[in-house]
Request: fold
Amino acid sequence: MPFREVEASPPHQHPDLVKDLAKELATPSNVAGFDVPAIKQEKQRYGDSLHVTVIWNRWNEVPDKAERGAVILEAYRESGRVNDARRITIALGLTSDEADRLKIVF
Amino acid sequence: MGLVERISGFDSLREMEDARLDRYWDGLSCAIEGRFFGGSYLLGYAIEMALKVAYFRVLDVPETEDVRNELNRARAMARARSVRNLHGLVFWAETLVATREQRGAPMDPALAGTLIGYASDAAAHWTVAMRYRRSVPALEECHDLLRIADWVQRVHHQLWS
Reply:
């Protein structure tokens, strides 16, 4: 049987967003508004998991929501927060309008 | 014999699994024929039922058993969160994600986020109360719901396994 090793297709097409989000994770800018990512990392009361919500208007560039979570997880790893990345059980990327609709307060 | 007599007298997982697919195809047919409001209504139901089915599967509810008890439990959870009825798409998405996590089998984190995001998008276009409202133009909304219903179809197994 032939053996063929191939690389899986990437889960998103937005390395620029990964870079910017990783930068913000490494050095939070504390700028108001959602033109920069607002990162809410919620430690769950039971267990050790994290729910991460990133409110960022650049998600408008990513209408396929399936890609947003992948961007968040990769940014965590890229910023050196590998252990945190392993604990994340929800990676939710929302624009400010979408966050309003879900009544998510930052 | 009337249609009501010919359909099942109670809601079971198997009935709902078939019904979600039926409502999806009904909704798609409406959308293709330009009945966008009706299509939206049916597609919203297809999404809602897909979430409920996944939730019942996570709970290991037997295929042919009446799901009333599980629905009553969900109703109590909904009340505790001030959710008024059991047709809330975001409620079901969040409950499904939380139940899997509580049971030690969390969803892929990106999938969980996607599900909650899409449930919220769908909830902006669908409510069970629509059935009492006259139709309004809904081309874009129907397309949005169709896209989300398609996504739910595609990943449905991953929502519960």
